[in-house]
Amino acid sequence: MPSLLSNLKSAREYLTPTLKSSAFLTRGVLTPEEFVKAGDELVYKCPTWTWEGGDPSKRKAHLPPDKQFLMTRNVPCTERVSSLENVVAVSHSEGAADGGGGDDDDGDWLVSQVLSAEEKKKHDEKEMEDEFDILDDEGEVVAEKKLAAMTLGGDDAGDEAGKESNTKSDADVAAAATDDADDDEYADMDDFEDDDIMEDEAAVTSPAVAADATTSTNDDILKVRTYDLSITYDKYYQTPRIWLMGYADDGSSRPLTGDEMMQDVISDYAHRTVTIENHPHVHGPHASIHPCQHGAVMKTIVRNLTKDQAEGEESGPTVEVYLFIFLKFVSSMIPTISYDFTMDVSASTKK
What we know:
Helix content is 41%, strand content 13%. It contains 13 helices and 8 strands. The protein has helices at residues 2-15, 24-27, 32-45, 81-84, 91-97, 117-131, 144-152, 156-181, 197-204, 207-219, 258-262, 294-310, 322-330, and strands at 50-52, 69-77, 88-89, 113-114, 225-234, 239-247, 274-278, 285-289.
């Protein structure tokens, strides 16, 4: 059934006329020539991405033979999205909690932000500190300096005892200094001679010790899943389309199953927007983000960028930055796959 569906989609794309006129600003879509131009810019700014020609028998006539799709390999994925979704921070909720009133549009186009392990740790530590704040009689948090003064403060008897102890300590130090003056100025180097030093060195570098060190080093290496990501041009939807192939973290280079790859996709999109399909150029089933809404989302993002930049002195976005914006948008669906898109892109999908 998946194979039949892929064949029908391929036939539909083949029969669709190639877009000739630019509709980047009006519809958020690209012509094949604009896709190549945007891809050239991505490869130039992010050398981890490369153009691929793919299987000659599967090449598309509307694209150059050596620029059929873009590829980046061995992209790390250190954590499962399924294990992080309990700490998802929805951007507009945070804005409301801060009293922003929902005016900040930056979070609207990114559905969610998954906190990293380090951010989660800092968040938990902050909560722990807040729980153990010391309050004064009026219920206010006691400042650190005031708390230190309260802790160091004591009665006069305690101060006198401290002074007496300090006086005794000074006398002891003076007596010790007098005893040291009677000793020889320099120690005898013969006292440090060690006849077995060569044997000690041999013991340190013994094979058993070296093997243990190697094992320890290997244990410290973080094993992570990796992904190969590719971007093709979908002639039917006239937008880029991203594909993912994951590999296991056990060092075997075993391709991940569809269900395993869905562990790295936000659950709202898994098996819905993101499905398992056959790649048009690379052998084997891949996870793919369906492009049916790409044009509408990109149109909104580009329009908002144009509006924001029109208020300043900068010019609006060009075709060259299309893939940077596109990859930023896609990262909200696969937040733990750390691919490179370099440019800091911030935009809104507010209509």
